[in-house]
Amino acid sequence: MRTQIDDSASEKNHLAMLKLIDWALRLCSVPFSVATIWITVTNKEDNSSYGMVKYNDLSGLKYMVLVSALCACYALAAAASSWLKFLVSKAWIFFLSDQIIAYLTITSVAAVTEIYYLVYHGAKEDSWSEACSSYGMFCSKVKLAIILHVITFFCFFVLSVISAFRAFIVFDPPINSQEV
After folding, report:
1. What is the H or E stretch that residue 104 is in?
2. Rounded distance between C-alpha atoms, residue 78 and residue 168, angstroms
3. Which pTM does this prediction carry?
């Protein structure tokens, strides 16, 4: 009897700690998303030979800004609502929305990384020359924005694992057919 009470108290402590980690990761992802937006939107460089390049010249960067804004808004709303009793019992809502945000974030990371690779290395077989030698500051800021966005992705990756755990913990483990 005593061990069941201790196990129950220990499980509640673990779930409370998990909830705190969940909340902290949500809040931690907000500054990374906002910094990604700010660095990307203010990124521009003028070159006397080739002209001005801005973030909105590249559709992948616009997509990253959109996803970062969505991440920041969702993280704030989810962090605030994670402490509301009637929503905490709806673990599936957090599970599905965390999965969607994680997938959107990784797609925007992939899109911008591809653009960065092309801008940095070029594609000679497609007649694309590299541009980072002419727009070094622009490329450096894009690289920093990608790094911040990857950190945001890792926050949401861990959040999606936590929300999956919280959604599926209510079910019993599968029964081995040999035990039946």
Report:
1. helix 91-121
2. 19
3. 0.84
